[in-house]
Amino acid sequence: MEKMNAAITIESTTSASTSTSASTSIPIDSSAIIRSHEPRVIKLSEAKAAALCLADAFAQDDVAMYFVETPDRAHKSAAANWSLHVSILEYVVAAHCMKGLALTIGPDYDCVALWMPPGRNMDDLCTILRSGMWRLHYRLSAEGKTRFFKEFLPLLHDTKADVLGARDDDAWYLVYIGTKTSARGKGYARKLIEYVGRMADAENRPCYLESSNDVNPVIYAKLGFAPKTKIQLTRGRRALELDIMVREPVKAEAV
Q1: What is the phi-psi region of residue 224: left when phi exceeds 0, alpha when psi lies from -120 to 50, beta otherwise?
Q2: In a 10 Å sphere around its CB, with 0-12 CB exposed, 13-18 middle and 19+ buried, how is residue 143 labelled?
Q3: To which H or E segment does residue 233 belong?
C-alpha cells in the first residue's frame, strides 16, 4: 500500500482399497511467484477480472458510486447496483487496455492501475464501441448519465487542462488505482505508481491524478505528488470533493 514455500505437499489416498497415504511434493516455478509481485500489463481478455479488483477497492467510494446510486435508481437492489458498478469499471478497464496502459500486480489482480499515456485518450469511436463504453448511454439512469457525461467528465477534462496548461497532453494520467481489501499493506499500489513514475522521469513528464479519498493524498505525497487544487461534484445530496495532485519529473542524479 513474502515469503512463500517453493513446493506444495499434497496428501492423497493411493486407492479406494488402501488407507495408506502418500506425500507428494509438486514443484512450483519460483520465478512465477516472483513475477506475480511485479507489475505486468493487463490484456483486453482480462478486463473483467481486473474490473472486479477495482470494484472491490471502490465499493465504498462515494465518487465511484455517484453514477450508480442516483435518486432515479432508488428502487434498484444492491445486486443491481453492484452489477452496474462492475460493468462501468469493466468498460473503463477495456478502454485502457486498448488505448492506455492497464497494469496489475499480485497473484490474482490484487491491485490494478489504469494510466493514460501522454497525448492519448479513449474518445475515438472504435474504442468506445469495442470497450463497451457506449453501453453507459443505456445502462445509466437519466440522472446517472447527466452526472457522468455532463458533470463528471467535463469537470475532469477542464480541470486537468487548467492545472497542467501547456503540458496537458504531455502528462501521464493516473485515472484509477485500487487494491483489493484482502491485499492491502503489501506495497502493490506503490509499485504500480513507481513503475510509470520511472518512465515519466526518463521522459521528463509530469504525472497527474484525482483522489476521491481523504486519506490517499498523504500517501500520494510520499510518492512525490503535490496538491494543486480541489474540485466538487454537486448533484448529489452533498458535495463530493476530489483532490487534484501532480508529480513533477525527478531528474536523475549525475554520477
Answers
A1: left
A2: middle
A3: strand 225-233
Q: Which conformational region is residue 12 in: left (phi greater than 0), alpha (psi within -120 to 50 degrees), or beta?
A: beta
Contact 244, 229 (CB under 8 A): yes
Unique residue bearing C-alpha cell 503535490: 226
If DSSP codes are grouped into helix, strand and coil, which group holds residue 209?
strand
Total-model pTM: 0.85
CA geometry: angle 150, 90, 170, nearest 5 deg = 65
> Cell numbers 493487463 label which residue?
42
C-alpha pair distances (Å), 243 with each of 40, 154, 216: 28, 16, 9
CB 117 within 8 A of CB 101: yes
Burial 165-179 (b: 16+ CB within 10 A, else e): eeebeebbbbbbbbb
CA 161 to chain centre: 22
Distance between CA atoms of 152 and 174, rounded to whole angstroms?
Answer: 16
70, 147 in Cβ contact below 8 A? yes
pLDDT, tens digit, 9 for 90 and up, residues 104-142? 999 999 999 999 999 999 999 999 999 999 999 999 999
